[in-house]
Amino acid sequence: MAEALLPLTEERVRESRVWLAFLHWSVNDPELAAIHHRSASELREGLRDAIAGAQRTGEVAEASDPEHEALALMSYIDGLTVEAVTTGEMYPPATVRTLLDVYLDRLFVTAPVGSGDPGDPDGSGDIR
């Protein structure tokens, strides 16, 4: 779902440019702002529901807040989109995909806390 939102093809780059122009105009146009709000709310709800579903199956940590994670993921995708469209050579599709994978790998649980996971050497669950 998240990858489909990113400018990974020429078509998606064009769509993203239109989206950026739309955002520019929506800042001062209440009708456009309402459309953007509705669209963003629908996306947030879809991501939240997907994250909550993954949480129920143990793929996302129980302590995670699906609402906050959905908002954070939306913000991350928006940032990647802006950077990929405005500084394309720094963010080719392969890099954008890798960055999304890195983000999602942090969200999705790959081993139980304290399981001897090499990413959690002291077993504390805190990877900072």
TrEMBL record:
Per the UniProt entry, the signal peptide is none
Among Gene3D superfamilies, the record links this protein to: Tetracycline Repressor, domain 2 (1.10.357.10)
- BetI-type transcriptional repressor C-terminal domain: from which residue to which, for each copy? 1-108
Q: Which InterPro entries does the record associate with it?
A: BetI_C, Tet_transcr_reg_TetR-rel_C_sf
Q: What is this protein called?
A: TetR family transcriptional regulator C-terminal domain-containing protein
